[in-house]
Design goal:
The protein has 417 residues and is α/β, with parallel strands linked by helices. Helix content is 36%, strand content 16%. The strands form four sheets. It has a seven-stranded mixed beta sheet, with helices on both faces. The protein has a four-stranded mixed beta sheet with strand order 1-2-3-15. A four-stranded antiparallel beta sheet has the order 13-14-17-16, covered by helices on one side. It is globular and about 55 Å long. It starts with a helix and ends with a helix. The chain binds 4'-deoxy-4'-aminopyridoxal-5'-phosphate (PMP). 4'-deoxy-4'-aminopyridoxal-5'-phosphate binds next to helix 6.
């Protein structure tokens, strides 16, 4: 480890929780130099819905490289981009989901920044409403709309024009949060001006796997319409099939004005982020939001192949089957371990909330023990007290079961200490 400690910035993070050197990965398995193998319940923080080095996608990427396909291309027209646009239009969009696609690059937060900038330009208002518990990225605009005060410490003074509204979580599950927003907007003395946009996640993933109710999303959409506010859905972590349907908001049958996608969109872990914009809102001037790495050609190839794979497989049904398995396992095998445990989730993102054990020592002891036993799983939520289960969607049932058994063993081992 010495070279990392000697040379790499103190800011490094995941490597601290998974202290091994990895060199190979396939499907849902990762292999380390020390000869250990790990089941992956983290999937590159959600960037690997199709697993590591998916055969079909890999073969498309290899052929492209082999044919000296153009690698870097700014945002020129390329045949790789042409095929991606055609496939995305065919598989993900429809007459109801009619969006223009903006390539932002290269990572999720870049698309969030573009969404905020465009919303402010369209509405000529500075304000943004975000939600408590939200996570949208680490660049200054995205950080300003993220709820975690700890990670905002270094971004002093950048969160002006952002107002955090309560998300239906904890005691606020029984509090009418939409009515609260409505009241704020209608009260001429609320001190909070009408925002350009409201940005939300249908499942707050980093926020601790908090699933928004369908009715809440329907009312949020209606509120935005009634108050002339744009609705932006950040589908970076739970889009691309994570909960079954391609977009997570399809569950509520709503159409956001803008959608932010990244992580698993490229299919192979390549950097790619997209902003989907309702056509009438696409008022950018040419080149007004520019950048060098907005057209990673390998990402186009990977993303097209991933969509082809999605079309030819039964991924949505597969997610439903595994959702049922995870739900049963967690409620029947983990929840009964202690009444301090709460379970939440949907599709293939699940959280085991252990905040009632106090602090995050217990949560960290579980994930550390999992790692020792050969499972990579991360924490999320307030003070890192939620064990977040995020396997590749394509994981086979026996590996999924093995990973779950490790979690159960880690609970018993940690409680026995
Ligand atoms: N939004 C959500 C919902 C996320 O989960 C993330 C990443 N965890 C981001 C935005 C930021 O994406 P990136 O880390 O690629 O900038």
């Amino acid at each position: 480890m010495n070279i990392f400690e000697k040379c790499e910035s103190n800011v490094r993070s995941y490597c601290r929780n998974f202290p091994d050197i990895f060199h190979r990965a396939k499907g849902s398995m990762i292999y380390s130099d020390s000869g250990k193998e790990y089941i992956d319940f983290f999937a590159g923080a959600g960037a690997l819905n199709y697993g590591h080095n998916h055969d079909y996608i890999k073969q498309k990427v290899m052929s492209y490289l082999d044919a000296d396909g153009i690698a870097h291309a700014l945002d020129m027209y390329t045949s790789a981009k042409e095929k991606f646009l055609a496939k995305f239009d065919e598989v993900a969009l429809s007459s109801t989901l009619d969006y223009r696609i903006q390539f932002c690059g290269p990572t999720g937060t870049n698309a969030v920044e573009a969404a905020l900038k465009l919303a402010r330009k369209v509405k000529q208002r500075a304000g943004i409403f975000s939600f408590m518990g939200a996570y949208h990225g680490m660049t200054l605009g995205s950080l300003a709309i993220s709820g975690n005060i700890g990670i905002r410490a270094g971004a002093i003074g950048t969160s002006s024009n952002v107002t955090f509204m309560p998300y239906p979580y904890g005691f606020m599950e029984t509090f009418d949060t939409i009515e609260y927003i409505e009241t704020v907007l209608n009260d001429v003395n609320s001190g909070i001006e009408k925002p350009a946009a409201i940005i939300f996640e249908t499942v707050q993933a980093e926020g601790g796997v908090v699933v928004a109710p369908i009715d809440w999303m329907l009312r949020l959409r209606k509120l935005c319409d009634e108050h002339d506010i744009l609705l932006i859905c950040d589908d970076i972590q739970v889009g691309c099939g994570r909960i079954g349907s391609f977009f997570s908001f399809e569950r509520a049958d709503i159409v956001p004005d803008m959608v932010v996608l990244s992580k698993s969109i490229s299919g192979y872990g390549f950097p790619m982020s997209l902003l989907l914009i309702k056509p009438e809102l696409d008022i950018w001037e040419p080149g007004e939001h520019n950048g060098t790495f907005r057209g990673n050609q390998l990402a186009f190839i990977g993303a097209t192949a991933a969509l082809e794979y999605r079309e030819s497989s039964n991924l949505e049904q597969d997610v439903k089957t595994k959702e049922l398995f995870l739900k049963n396992f967690l409620s029947q095998e983990i929840a009964p371990i202690s009444e301090k445990i709460a379970i939440r989730g949907i599709g293939m993102i699940w959280g085991i909330d252990v905040k009632n054990f106090g602090g995050n020592t217990f949560a960290r002891s579980i994930t550390s023990r999992c790692f020792e036993l050969g499972l990579i799983v991360e924490l999320a939520g307030r003070n890192d007290t939620v064990i977040k289960i995020l396997p590749p969607l394509v994981i086979d049932m026996s590996t999924l079961q093995r990973g779950c058994s490790i979690i159960k063993a880690a609970f018993h081992d940690s409680l026995a200490v």
